[in-house]
Design brief:
- This protein is an alpha/beta fold.
- The protein has helices at about 5-10, 75-80, 105-115, 130-140, 150-160, 180-190, 210-225, 235-240, 260-265, 270-275, 285-290, 320-335, 375-385, 385-395, 400-434; strands at about 30-40, 45-60, 60-65, 90-95, 95, 115, 195-200, 230-235, 245-250, 255-260, 290-295, 310, 315-320, 340-345, 350-355, 365.
- The chain has three domains: about 5-260, Rossmann fold (3-Layer(aba) Sandwich); about 265-365, no CATH class; about 375-434.
- The protein contains 15 helices and 16 strands.
- Strand 7, helix 7 (about 210-225) and strand 8 (about 230-235) form a beta-alpha-beta unit.
- Helix 13 crosses helix 14 (about 385-395) and helix 14 (about 385-395) runs antiparallel to helix 15.
- It is globular, with a radius of gyration of 26 Å.
Length: about 425
């Protein structure tokens, strides 16, 4: 598509096309953020919260934006739903510009197609409205129902899909737990049948025990309804589980973009390296002796040339000067995973600068992404204890400790149960022949 056609399409379109433009690999680009600047305040008090941010989100994927508090993640997410105005750049949805001044009809299309799940489920819900009205509000505003029965059917179906009950519809948000309130927030967004959902740290305010439930619920909607997510978070261990691609943002600038496993295996930018090193290890002894890498921005020398976000191959983008990009590319071309977590058993663990990248025998990798200790492993091992013990042995060999424990626990419980059943059966036979 030519630039002239694209510009004409962006300026004149009042509706979105059925499909967005394709990239060079044939992937449909649903959302494109191009050179976006966002500034708060005016004149001398102006603060540039986001600077020259660019990334694409493809249809059906989960693109995560990660970084520490104050890095500009939520600011970008709110710009996508047209809450934060842009000081520069543009945002395109299916090739149509949705930033700045757009026709009223197109603005309504944006609201209809792009929904948001907020970080605080208590503050984002109206305490004076029933759950029925909260979920129905979008249906009312856009007349997405044919009658009262149709609206009620859609709301009840959605409340069931998020794991709540129809009788909950008459209650108010303050009557629910944090996890239940977040499910209501998800139902409010999903009932609109959006194509893109901006999830702004949807699990950070929730108890650890129910975070996985909410994440699994979001993945279920993605599979069933082909929803695309812009997932905003600061917890990289969660991001690895849910993401297809990850963008790392630091002080309003994107410093690295790559596929999930690519980023965790080859964290090239020092800031990404420091974020991964901060992920807690579920072993007190290892965590106590872990060396924390800290990112020092002064390590970069950008006095002679301006850094850029450059693709170094493998669909991996890194922010840096020409010299840094060459160094990053050389590291990636070696094909040897970069170790991000170091354990110091000498007792002098502390903070180490990210410039120290030498590998040692004490370096460890993150737990395998599929080592979840899934309940089904335990259940199958219970009914099939011998194959369960074999599976436990194999998991142990490849260091999948959680899966190993689940299979072993289920197999041992199964053997004991079957042993008791056989013993009772033999006793009954003896009693019958006496």
């Amino acid at each position: 598509m030519s630039n002239n056609n694209t510009n004409a399409k962006e300026n004149s379109a009042a509706v979105f096309p059925e499909h967005g433009p394709l990239d060079e690999n044939g992937r449909e680009i649903l959302l494109s953020v191009k050179n976006v600047d966002i500034t708060f305040g005016k004149k001398d008090n102006a603060v540039k919260a986001v600077q020259n941010v660019s990334f694409d989100i493809y249809k059906g994927e989960t693109f995560s934006l990660v970084g520490e508090s104050g890095s500009g993640k939520t600011t970008v997410g709110r710009a996508v739903i047209r809450v934060n105005p842009l000081a520069g750049g543009e945002i395109l949805y299916k090739g149509v510009r949705i930033s700045g001044k757009i026709p009223h009809a197109l603005d309504r299309k944006v609201i209809r197609n792009i929904q948001m799940v907020f970080q605080d489920p208590a503050a984002s819900l109206n305490d004076r409205a029933t759950v029925d009205y909260i979920i129905s509000e979008g249906l009312y505003n856009f007349h997405l129902y044919t009658g009262k029965a149709d609206r009620q059917q859609k709301v009840e179906k959605m409340i069931n899909e998020v794991g709540l009950l129809p009788e909950h519809l008459t209650r108010y948000p303050h009557e629910f737990s944090g996890g239940q309130r977040q499910r209501i927030g998800i139902a409010r967004a999903m009932v609109m049948e959006p194509e893109l959902v901006v999830a702004d740290e949807p699990i950070s305010a929730l108890d650890v025990s129910i975070r996985a439930q909410v994440l699994n619920l979001m993945k279920k909607f993605q599979r069933e309804k082909e929803i695309t997510y812009l997932f905003i978070a600061h917890d990289l261990s969660v991001v690895r589980f849910i993401s297809d691609r990850i963008g790392v943002i630091y002080k309003g600038k994107i410093v690295e973009i790559a596929e999930s496993e690519e980023l965790f295996n080859y964290p090239l930018h020092p800031y990404t390296h420091s974020l991964i090193s901060a992920i807690p290890i579920p072993d007190p002894k290892l965590e106590k002796n872990k060396v924390l890498y800290t990112y020092d921005p002064s390590m970069h020398d950008y006095s002679n040339e301006q850094p850029e976000l450059v693709c170094i191959g493998h669909d991996h983008y890194v922010y840096g000067s020409k010299k840094e990009i060459e160094e990053y590319k050389a590291i990636r071309d070696k094909g040897e995973p970069v170790k991000s977590i170091t354990i110091d058993f000498s007792g002098s663990a502390g903070t180490r600068n990210t410039q120290e990248t030498a590998a040692s025998e004490e370096e460890i990798q993150l737990p395998p992404v599929h080592d979840t200790g899934f309940f089904l492993y335990m259940l199958l091992s219970f009914f099939l204890p011998i194959p369960g013990l074999i599976a436990a042995f194999l998991f142990r060999r490849v260091n999948y400790i959680r899966n190993y424990k689940a299979c072993r626990k289920g197999a041992i419980a199964g053997l004991i149960t079957f042993g008791v059943i056989v013993l009772i059966f033999l006793l009954l036979i003896l009693l019958a022949y006496r």
